[in-house]
Amino acid sequence: MSKRSVADLKIGEQATIQSFSDQLMSLKLLEMGCLPGAQICLTAKAPLGDPICLKVAGYCLAMRKSEAATILINS
């Protein structure tokens, strides 16, 4: 079974961040509060599906779906 990413979540679905697939992007994500072990929830999507809005570390974070695909989860 392949790992799921945040980009695979449906609106309202929660998951736990496990790791990152892109080392350079992971530094940016860590600075934004996306830490391994943190709970993350997809709260909204733009009408065409990109960007998306996530709730993590107590705040809402908007990011592109391609960026979200680098955050691996365990739902």
UniProtKB/TrEMBL annotation:
Highest taxon above the source species: Bacteria
Pfam families according to UniProt: FeoA (PF04023)
GO molecular function: transition metal ion binding
InterPro entries per UniProt: Fe-transptr_FeoA-like, FeoA, FeoA_core_dom, Transcriptional_repressor_C
Occurrences of domain Ferrous iron transporter FeoA-like (ranges): 4-75
Keyword set, alphabetical order: Iron
Protein name in the entry: Ferrous iron transport protein A
Species per Swiss-Prot/TrEMBL record: Spirosoma validum
